[in-house]
Amino acid sequence: MATTLDLKSKEEKDAELDKRIEALRRKNEALIRRYQEIEEDRKKA
């Protein structure tokens, strides 16, 4: 019985981690995109 509970909680933790990683990745991509746009503007100026 304990093993099934452990497995479930591990899967839930993994899902939570995946969500956090995905959120961080999106945030990171947005930051990189903005940085690249700023760099291009500097080259044009």
UniProtKB/TrEMBL annotation:
<feature type="coiled-coil region">
    <location>
        <begin position="7"/>
        <end position="41"/>
    </location>
</feature>
<keyword id="KW-0597">Phosphoprotein</keyword>
<dbReference type="InterPro" id="IPR029336">
    <property type="entry name" value="DUF4594"/>
</dbReference>
<keyword id="KW-0175">Coiled coil</keyword>
<protein>
    <submittedName>
        <fullName>Coiled-coil domain containing 9</fullName>
    </submittedName>
</protein>
